[in-house]
Known about the structure:
Layout: H1 18-23, E1 34-41, E2 48-50, E3 53-59, H2 64-73, E4 78-84, H3 101-112, E5 117-122, E6 136-137, E7 140-141, H4 143-160, E8 164-167, H5 174-184, E9 193-198, H6 205-211, H7 231-242, E10 247-251, H8 257-266, E11 271-275, H9 277-288, H10 294-308, E12 312-315, H11 318-327
Helix pairs in contact: 2-3, 3-4, 4-5, 7-8
The structure holds ligand PBG and zinc ion (ZN).
The site of ligand PBG has 12 residues, from α6.
Amino acid sequence: MTESFDMPxxxxxxxxxxxxxxxxxxxxxxxxxxxxxxFIDETVQVKTEVxxxxxxxxxxxxxxxxxxQEVADLGIKGVILFGIxxxxxxxxxxxxxxxxxVQQAIRxxxxxxxxxxxxxxxxxxxxxxxxxxGVLKGEHVDNDVxxxxxxxxxxxxxRAGVDVIAPSGMMDGTVEALRSALDQNGWQHIPIMxxxxxxxxxxxxxxxxxxxxxxxxxxxxxxQMDSGNIREAIRExxxxxxxxxxxxxxxxxxxxxxxIRAVKExxxxxxxxxxxxxxxxxxxxxxxxxxxxxxxVVLETMLSFKRAGADLILTYHALDVAKWLNDA
Length: 328
Ligand code: PBG
Ligand code: ZN
Protein backbone atom coordinates (compact mmCIF):
# COMPACT_ATOMS: atom_id res chain seq x y z
CA MET A 1 0.00 0.00 0.00
CA THR A 2 1.54 3.32 -1.09
CA GLU A 3 1.05 6.68 0.59
CA SER A 4 -0.09 8.19 -2.72
CA PHE A 5 -3.60 9.12 -3.66
CA ASP A 6 -4.93 7.95 -6.98
CA MET A 7 -4.84 11.32 -8.80
CA PRO A 8 -4.06 11.30 -12.53
CA UNK A 9 -4.24 15.08 -12.94
CA UNK A 10 -1.45 16.87 -11.09
CA UNK A 11 -0.66 20.44 -12.22
CA UNK A 12 2.49 20.38 -10.09
CA UNK A 13 4.18 18.00 -12.59
CA UNK A 14 4.83 20.92 -14.92
CA UNK A 15 6.28 23.01 -12.10
CA UNK A 16 8.81 20.40 -11.04
CA UNK A 17 11.88 21.85 -12.78
CA UNK A 18 12.90 25.29 -13.95
CA UNK A 19 13.20 23.92 -17.49
CA UNK A 20 9.63 22.64 -17.54
CA UNK A 21 8.38 25.90 -16.02
CA UNK A 22 10.14 27.89 -18.72
CA UNK A 23 8.73 25.64 -21.45
CA UNK A 24 5.12 26.14 -20.38
CA UNK A 25 5.23 29.80 -19.35
CA UNK A 26 2.37 31.66 -21.03
CA UNK A 27 3.54 35.27 -20.89
CA UNK A 28 6.81 36.91 -21.77
CA UNK A 29 8.28 40.30 -20.95
CA UNK A 30 10.92 41.84 -23.16
CA UNK A 31 12.87 45.09 -23.31
CA UNK A 32 11.05 46.08 -26.50
CA UNK A 33 7.76 46.21 -24.54
CA UNK A 34 9.00 49.23 -22.58
CA UNK A 35 8.58 52.98 -23.08
CA UNK A 36 10.45 55.37 -20.80
CA UNK A 37 9.03 58.81 -19.81
CA UNK A 38 11.41 61.79 -19.87
CA PHE A 39 10.72 65.15 -18.24
CA ILE A 40 12.37 68.00 -20.14
CA ASP A 41 12.44 71.08 -17.96
CA GLU A 42 13.21 74.58 -19.14
CA THR A 43 13.40 75.86 -15.55
CA VAL A 44 16.40 73.76 -14.43
CA GLN A 45 20.07 73.96 -15.39
CA VAL A 46 21.03 70.55 -14.00
CA LYS A 47 19.43 67.13 -13.65
CA THR A 48 17.04 67.44 -10.69
CA GLU A 49 15.51 64.47 -8.90
CA VAL A 50 11.72 64.42 -8.39
CA UNK A 51 11.25 64.15 -4.62
CA UNK A 52 8.30 61.78 -4.74
CA UNK A 53 9.85 59.67 -7.53
CA UNK A 54 13.35 58.55 -6.49
CA UNK A 55 15.46 57.78 -9.57
CA UNK A 56 13.37 60.01 -11.86
CA UNK A 57 14.78 63.37 -12.93
CA UNK A 58 13.69 66.57 -14.60
CA UNK A 59 16.44 67.33 -17.09
CA UNK A 60 17.36 70.45 -19.04
CA UNK A 61 17.07 70.14 -22.82
CA UNK A 62 20.88 70.15 -23.04
CA UNK A 63 20.89 66.67 -21.44
CA UNK A 64 18.01 65.21 -23.46
CA UNK A 65 20.14 63.54 -26.14
CA UNK A 66 22.44 62.00 -23.54
CA UNK A 67 19.45 60.64 -21.59
CA UNK A 68 17.98 59.22 -24.79
CA GLN A 69 21.29 57.56 -25.64
CA GLU A 70 21.27 55.80 -22.26
CA VAL A 71 17.73 54.54 -22.97
CA ALA A 72 18.67 53.36 -26.47
CA ASP A 73 21.84 51.63 -25.24
CA LEU A 74 19.70 49.45 -22.98
CA GLY A 75 17.67 48.27 -25.98
CA ILE A 76 14.54 50.23 -25.07
CA LYS A 77 12.72 51.29 -28.26
CA GLY A 78 10.80 54.36 -27.15
CA VAL A 79 10.65 57.44 -24.94
CA ILE A 80 7.67 59.65 -24.20
CA LEU A 81 8.42 63.33 -23.61
CA PHE A 82 6.80 65.73 -21.17
CA GLY A 83 7.78 69.39 -21.14
CA ILE A 84 7.94 71.95 -18.36
CA UNK A 85 8.15 75.44 -19.91
CA UNK A 86 9.60 78.60 -18.44
CA UNK A 87 6.46 80.59 -19.26
CA UNK A 88 2.87 79.43 -18.89
CA UNK A 89 -0.25 81.24 -20.08
CA UNK A 90 -4.01 80.75 -20.07
CA UNK A 91 -4.13 78.71 -23.30
CA UNK A 92 -0.81 76.85 -23.09
CA UNK A 93 0.79 78.41 -26.16
CA UNK A 94 4.19 76.91 -25.26
CA UNK A 95 2.65 73.69 -26.55
CA UNK A 96 2.75 74.83 -30.19
CA UNK A 97 5.81 77.07 -30.19
CA UNK A 98 8.39 75.51 -32.56
CA UNK A 99 11.17 76.60 -30.18
CA UNK A 100 9.53 75.28 -27.01
CA UNK A 101 11.21 72.79 -24.76
CA VAL A 102 9.71 69.56 -26.13
CA GLN A 103 10.26 70.61 -29.74
CA GLN A 104 13.94 71.30 -28.97
CA ALA A 105 14.24 67.96 -27.19
CA ILE A 106 12.70 66.08 -30.12
CA ARG A 107 15.20 67.63 -32.52
CA UNK A 108 18.21 66.88 -30.36
CA UNK A 109 17.14 63.32 -29.53
CA UNK A 110 16.39 62.48 -33.17
CA UNK A 111 19.81 63.85 -34.17
CA UNK A 112 21.61 61.70 -31.57
CA UNK A 113 19.53 58.49 -31.67
CA UNK A 114 17.52 58.47 -34.92
CA UNK A 115 16.23 54.93 -34.38
CA UNK A 116 14.78 55.63 -30.95
CA UNK A 117 11.01 56.15 -31.19
CA UNK A 118 10.21 59.60 -29.82
CA UNK A 119 6.65 59.96 -28.59
CA UNK A 120 5.28 63.34 -27.54
CA UNK A 121 2.64 63.54 -24.83
CA UNK A 122 0.19 65.96 -26.40
CA UNK A 123 -1.75 67.99 -23.85
CA UNK A 124 -1.78 71.43 -22.22
CA UNK A 125 -1.76 70.98 -18.45
CA UNK A 126 2.00 71.52 -18.26
CA UNK A 127 1.69 74.70 -20.33
CA UNK A 128 -1.35 76.45 -18.87
CA UNK A 129 -1.08 78.73 -15.83
CA UNK A 130 -4.30 77.22 -14.41
CA UNK A 131 -3.06 73.63 -14.86
CA UNK A 132 -6.09 72.31 -16.77
CA UNK A 133 -5.71 70.30 -19.96
CA GLY A 134 -7.06 72.97 -22.33
CA VAL A 135 -8.62 76.40 -22.71
CA LEU A 136 -11.08 77.39 -20.01
CA LYS A 137 -14.57 78.69 -20.59
CA GLY A 138 -15.73 79.64 -17.10
CA GLU A 139 -14.73 76.80 -14.81
CA HIS A 140 -14.75 74.17 -17.58
CA VAL A 141 -12.38 73.20 -20.36
CA ASP A 142 -13.75 74.21 -23.76
CA ASN A 143 -13.54 70.99 -25.77
CA ASP A 144 -13.53 72.27 -29.34
CA VAL A 145 -11.30 75.32 -28.86
CA UNK A 146 -8.85 72.93 -27.21
CA UNK A 147 -9.05 70.62 -30.24
CA UNK A 148 -7.87 73.48 -32.47
CA UNK A 149 -4.91 74.04 -30.17
CA UNK A 150 -4.14 70.31 -30.04
CA UNK A 151 -3.92 70.35 -33.85
CA UNK A 152 -1.37 73.18 -33.69
CA UNK A 153 0.59 71.36 -30.99
CA UNK A 154 0.71 68.07 -32.93
CA UNK A 155 1.82 69.83 -36.12
CA UNK A 156 4.57 71.60 -34.25
CA UNK A 157 5.81 68.27 -32.83
CA UNK A 158 5.62 66.78 -36.32
CA ARG A 159 7.77 69.60 -37.75
CA ALA A 160 10.30 68.91 -34.98
CA GLY A 161 10.53 65.28 -36.12
CA VAL A 162 8.37 63.39 -33.63
CA ASP A 163 7.63 59.72 -34.36
CA VAL A 164 4.33 59.29 -32.49
CA ILE A 165 1.70 61.72 -31.16
CA ALA A 166 0.12 60.76 -27.82
CA PRO A 167 -2.85 62.91 -26.86
CA SER A 168 -3.57 62.64 -23.11
CA GLY A 169 -6.19 65.32 -22.45
CA MET A 170 -9.42 63.29 -22.84
CA MET A 171 -11.11 65.87 -25.08
CA ASP A 172 -13.87 64.39 -27.25
CA GLY A 173 -12.93 64.02 -30.90
CA THR A 174 -9.19 64.37 -30.29
CA VAL A 175 -8.05 61.49 -32.46
CA GLU A 176 -10.16 62.58 -35.43
CA ALA A 177 -8.99 66.19 -35.12
CA LEU A 178 -5.33 65.18 -34.90
CA ARG A 179 -5.57 62.59 -37.68
CA SER A 180 -7.04 65.10 -40.10
CA ALA A 181 -4.55 67.84 -39.18
CA LEU A 182 -1.62 65.46 -39.59
CA ASP A 183 -2.94 64.05 -42.87
CA GLN A 184 -3.70 67.44 -44.41
CA ASN A 185 -0.15 68.54 -43.73
CA GLY A 186 1.68 65.56 -45.13
CA TRP A 187 2.20 63.63 -41.91
CA GLN A 188 0.06 60.62 -42.85
CA HIS A 189 2.73 58.25 -41.58
CA ILE A 190 2.77 59.54 -37.98
CA PRO A 191 0.82 57.19 -35.68
CA ILE A 192 -1.46 58.32 -32.87
CA MET A 193 -1.17 56.56 -29.54
CA UNK A 194 -4.33 57.65 -27.77
CA UNK A 195 -4.71 57.87 -24.02
CA UNK A 196 -8.19 56.58 -24.84
CA UNK A 197 -9.14 55.38 -21.39
CA UNK A 198 -7.74 57.72 -18.76
CA UNK A 199 -9.31 57.80 -15.32
CA UNK A 200 -9.43 60.78 -12.95
CA UNK A 201 -6.95 59.19 -10.58
CA UNK A 202 -5.19 59.98 -7.32
CA UNK A 203 -2.28 57.89 -8.63
CA UNK A 204 -1.11 60.87 -10.74
CA UNK A 205 -0.04 62.81 -7.64
CA UNK A 206 3.75 62.47 -7.95
CA UNK A 207 3.62 63.21 -11.71
CA UNK A 208 1.93 66.51 -11.02
CA UNK A 209 4.90 67.44 -8.82
CA UNK A 210 7.28 66.25 -11.51
CA UNK A 211 5.58 68.08 -14.36
CA UNK A 212 4.32 70.99 -12.28
CA UNK A 213 0.82 70.58 -13.70
CA UNK A 214 -1.67 70.37 -10.82
CA UNK A 215 -4.94 72.13 -11.58
CA UNK A 216 -5.01 75.43 -9.68
CA UNK A 217 -8.71 74.94 -8.90
CA UNK A 218 -11.07 71.97 -9.05
CA UNK A 219 -10.07 68.65 -10.56
CA UNK A 220 -10.08 66.85 -13.91
CA UNK A 221 -13.32 64.91 -13.32
CA UNK A 222 -15.19 66.72 -16.10
CA UNK A 223 -12.84 65.27 -18.73
CA GLN A 224 -11.08 62.24 -17.20
CA MET A 225 -13.14 59.13 -16.47
CA ASP A 226 -14.87 57.96 -13.30
CA SER A 227 -13.05 55.05 -11.64
CA GLY A 228 -16.10 52.84 -11.45
CA ASN A 229 -16.80 52.78 -15.18
CA ILE A 230 -15.80 49.99 -17.55
CA ARG A 231 -18.59 50.06 -20.16
CA GLU A 232 -17.63 53.68 -20.76
CA ALA A 233 -14.01 52.57 -21.19
CA ILE A 234 -15.05 50.29 -24.02
CA ARG A 235 -17.01 53.12 -25.59
CA GLU A 236 -14.05 55.50 -25.41
CA UNK A 237 -11.72 52.86 -26.85
CA UNK A 238 -14.05 52.01 -29.72
CA UNK A 239 -14.60 55.69 -30.52
CA UNK A 240 -10.85 56.24 -30.77
CA UNK A 241 -10.40 53.23 -33.03
CA UNK A 242 -13.16 54.57 -35.29
CA UNK A 243 -11.38 57.93 -35.42
CA UNK A 244 -8.12 56.28 -36.47
CA UNK A 245 -6.15 55.63 -33.29
CA UNK A 246 -3.17 53.36 -34.01
CA UNK A 247 -2.46 52.38 -30.40
CA UNK A 248 -4.82 52.59 -27.41
CA UNK A 249 -3.73 53.26 -23.86
CA UNK A 250 -5.32 52.50 -20.51
CA UNK A 251 -4.18 54.57 -17.56
CA UNK A 252 -3.44 54.02 -14.68
CA UNK A 253 -2.38 50.38 -14.76
CA UNK A 254 -2.52 48.37 -11.57
CA UNK A 255 -5.96 49.37 -10.35
CA UNK A 256 -7.38 48.96 -13.90
CA UNK A 257 -6.18 45.52 -15.03
CA UNK A 258 -9.76 44.48 -15.79
CA UNK A 259 -10.09 47.48 -18.10
CA ILE A 260 -6.95 46.50 -20.05
CA ARG A 261 -8.40 43.03 -20.55
CA ALA A 262 -11.85 44.28 -21.51
CA VAL A 263 -10.53 46.79 -24.06
CA LYS A 264 -8.12 44.22 -25.47
CA GLU A 265 -10.98 41.83 -26.13
CA UNK A 266 -13.11 44.24 -28.14
CA UNK A 267 -10.44 46.04 -30.20
CA UNK A 268 -7.69 44.94 -32.56
CA UNK A 269 -5.02 47.63 -32.26
CA UNK A 270 -1.93 47.34 -30.04
CA UNK A 271 -2.59 48.17 -26.39
CA UNK A 272 -0.44 50.21 -24.05
CA UNK A 273 -0.69 50.64 -20.31
CA UNK A 274 0.68 53.55 -18.29
CA UNK A 275 2.23 52.34 -15.02
CA UNK A 276 1.81 55.79 -13.46
CA UNK A 277 3.77 57.89 -11.00
CA UNK A 278 1.81 56.90 -7.87
CA UNK A 279 2.30 53.22 -8.65
CA UNK A 280 6.03 53.85 -9.01
CA UNK A 281 6.24 55.94 -5.84
CA UNK A 282 4.57 53.25 -3.72
CA UNK A 283 7.02 50.59 -4.87
CA UNK A 284 10.02 52.86 -4.33
CA UNK A 285 8.88 53.85 -0.84
CA UNK A 286 8.27 50.27 0.28
CA UNK A 287 11.56 49.13 -1.26
CA UNK A 288 13.46 51.92 0.48
CA UNK A 289 12.08 50.68 3.79
CA UNK A 290 13.16 47.16 2.94
CA UNK A 291 9.58 45.94 3.04
CA UNK A 292 9.50 44.45 -0.45
CA UNK A 293 12.00 43.03 -2.94
CA UNK A 294 11.90 45.81 -5.56
CA UNK A 295 13.23 43.79 -8.46
CA UNK A 296 10.86 40.87 -7.96
CA VAL A 297 7.85 43.10 -7.34
CA VAL A 298 8.52 45.23 -10.41
CA LEU A 299 9.13 42.27 -12.73
CA GLU A 300 5.96 40.59 -11.46
CA THR A 301 4.00 43.79 -12.08
CA MET A 302 5.36 44.15 -15.63
CA LEU A 303 4.55 40.53 -16.44
CA SER A 304 1.05 41.03 -15.05
CA PHE A 305 0.46 43.98 -17.39
CA LYS A 306 1.40 41.71 -20.28
CA ARG A 307 -0.88 38.95 -18.99
CA ALA A 308 -3.75 41.43 -18.71
CA GLY A 309 -3.33 42.25 -22.39
CA ALA A 310 -0.90 45.15 -22.65
CA ASP A 311 1.55 45.04 -25.55
CA LEU A 312 3.47 48.14 -24.46
CA ILE A 313 4.23 49.42 -20.95
CA LEU A 314 5.02 53.05 -20.19
CA THR A 315 6.95 52.93 -16.94
CA TYR A 316 9.42 54.86 -14.82
CA HIS A 317 10.95 51.47 -13.97
CA ALA A 318 11.96 50.94 -17.62
CA LEU A 319 15.71 51.49 -17.18
CA ASP A 320 15.87 49.09 -14.21
CA VAL A 321 13.69 46.50 -15.92
CA ALA A 322 15.84 46.64 -19.06
CA LYS A 323 19.00 46.16 -16.99
CA TRP A 324 17.48 43.22 -15.11
CA LEU A 325 16.27 41.57 -18.33
CA ASN A 326 19.58 42.18 -20.09
CA ASP A 327 21.53 40.66 -17.14
CA ALA A 328 19.30 37.60 -16.85
C1 PBG B 1 -1.16 65.06 -18.50
C2 PBG B 1 -0.69 63.77 -18.01
C3 PBG B 1 -0.78 63.25 -16.71
C4 PBG B 1 -0.10 62.03 -16.71
C5 PBG B 1 0.37 61.84 -18.01
N1 PBG B 1 -0.04 62.91 -18.80
C6 PBG B 1 -1.32 63.81 -15.47
C7 PBG B 1 -2.70 64.19 -15.31
O1 PBG B 1 -3.58 63.90 -16.11
O2 PBG B 1 -2.91 64.83 -14.30
C8 PBG B 1 0.11 61.14 -15.52
C9 PBG B 1 1.33 60.33 -15.53
C10 PBG B 1 1.72 59.74 -14.23
O3 PBG B 1 1.07 59.90 -13.18
O4 PBG B 1 2.76 59.08 -14.23
N2 PBG B 1 -2.38 65.08 -19.16
ZN1 ZN C 1 -3.19 67.25 -19.45
